[in-house]
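Input:
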Amino acid sequence: MDWITIISTTVKSAIGVETVLYALAAIGINIHFGYTGLLNFGQAAFMGVAGYGLAVTVTVLGLPFWVGIGVGLAAAVLLALLLGAPTLRLRADYLAIVTIAAAEIVRLVFRSVQFRDVFGGSDGQRGFSDGFYALNPFPEGEYGIGWFSFNHRLLWIMLVGWVLVALSCGIVYLLMRSPWGRVLKAIREDEDAVRSLGKNVFSYKMQSLILGGVIGSLGGFIYGLAYASVQPDVFGTETTFFAYTIVILGGAARVLGPVVGSMIFWVLLVLVNGVLSEAVQAGYIPFMTSIQVGPVRYILVGLGLILLLIFRPQGIFGDKREIAFDVR
Amino acid sequence: MEGQNPALTYFEGAPLRRAVIAFTAFLGGLIFLLAVPAQAAAPDQGLRGTLKLQGQPVNGVKIVVTTEGGQPVKEVTSNAQGAWVVPIDKPGKYKVTLDVKTLPQNAMIRGGNAVRTPTVFSGNVSTVLFALQLKGAAGQPADEGGESSPFLDQAAQLTFEGLNLGLIIALAALGLSLIYGTTGLTNFAHGELVTLGALLAYLFNVGFGLHLIPAAVIAVIAGGALGYLQDRFFWGQLRRRGTGTIAMMIISIGVALFLRYVFLILFGGQNESFAQYTAQPGIEIGPISAAPKNFVAMGIELLVLIIVGFALLRTRTGKAARAVADNPALAASSGINVDRVIRIIWTTGGAIAALAGIMLGLSQNLKYTMGQDILLLIFAGVTLGGLGTAFGALVGSLVVGLFIQVSTLWVPPELKSVGALAVLIIVLLFRPQGILGRRERIG
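Output:
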């Protein structure tokens, strides 16, 4: 077994691209679910419209990179308005069903043959990240010590990603200490009480949905830029559920919960994946093939989600009194 | 449900922990039971596709792959599942031609173009799509002279298929709706119960060589037993502990992820079909042409739905179930054993979900994601009808099934689910309580 590879990939994954983009998605969900109590199961759609907004603007319309970012952000805001308008007045489970349905609609439209010219069908779009890497201040080469090194492209996207994560956390920290944030938390605790105080609950929920969606959409940009491509199936419901697991693992309604959750989540997944595939290749686990290692991560996430909610719903840093659902 | 049984809420971790262990052990047992040999791996890079006509695989169609310059690469024919694969050594642009002469008599390519030019990227298997449709379907110039117009024929055919799909959705939706009504659980793992039924039937049918009918009976019984055990050892324990409905909803997502990928490991990622009744010659009744199995399947579905509906209306347990769905606390205080009713509903729900899976596998194909794919349609049906109302779920599901199939008159088939989900959202805007739901404050 090649322990150096296993350890190096695991350590790198603690700050890697995957961790960054899921941290962003999870920070968005934390605003929805952790602070406001909204069950948005369509976070993947926010990431998707952002990633595709960028990709389509640059590749199909031939417009510059920054316009693409603008289009992506506008698409995320628009999606939030569209999703929120019919559902934010309804009970929590309706919002969950509608958002998950909307996310599937978005994914199916992206992968349809009908719109292949625009969205590229199931192969997705590629070749839109040049504008981003043209801004790269790092000259070509490898940076780091020994195996703990990244090439200039990876370093650039990780730097941008972590700056975005830090900014988002700062915004969440400041907002949730403000009167605005206190209203959100009050909505989570008792909507009717807030309404009776004369606050427009619908409008606050909508603002929360937009803010969380936009932060989540940053994760979509990071995905598209890091892999220089977007595919529809990346933005499936599993992505949303991974982000939910991260929020609950780190601790809902905690500023740094999603970030720490994402780091732990990916370190664990990459470690298990590495150890398992090495063990299968070395013949230690005779009843599994290397193809069967892939699904194991999803099984672990599922099991982790069940066990977390049963035994430690507040996650690592959370406070039981600050959770949107009633647990005993 | 919380707080309705205060005497039971101090059940703490220990029995629950045992419950989780039992549940995991049970699933572990399933793993050995289900260990179907893994399928040969797909090539590293290449082209593949699946040919289907009205959801039925199309066998024996010749596909010719050449390089962009016209150098022949390979010729293949689609297999019994309608699938074809061409491994390709060098990434690049390729030309894929479907030999129209080898298509079945009644089939044609939508749009008429039989050539595709996909790009193969290294380490990637690209999917090449040939959408097939019946000759004379929408988008074709209608040929005059027949007694009835092709558009109406097509509409009748699609209505029939819509009813078929709607009945399958209704089977699954009925269980989901009853479970929601009695326990408040929005069960995202219900789709996996559907898949489980189909895969169990496949195991007994193809794995152990039983005929499909006894295999299906065993699978339905096993589905019911699993429903019972799930409630007995898992959901019931959580309820007793006082876990909130939203926490349970997220737990059900974990269960769904867990089960789905256990299925993937055991069953593999490919499409399969049952050993019997796969390729039946169609029969024509009026404007409708369908395989006989579809008529039988619809008959069984209808029968089961009528029996369950009758049981809900006329039997003591059924009445109790409706009472619990209406108001659990009141039902409990009027002497109904709520836990027993819930357990019966889980058992029935599991069994009819398994039946829905088998029917779905019969009319389409078996895949580890089949339940996930239909779950949103089930939710659409349940929500349309009104969350928690048994007959609402029935009506809503039929509407969803019909809408999906009939909409393909105007909408490309790959986007038909999009239309149904969009309708779901629009209905929630104007009548959030659903078709048969009662007006109440729901937000």
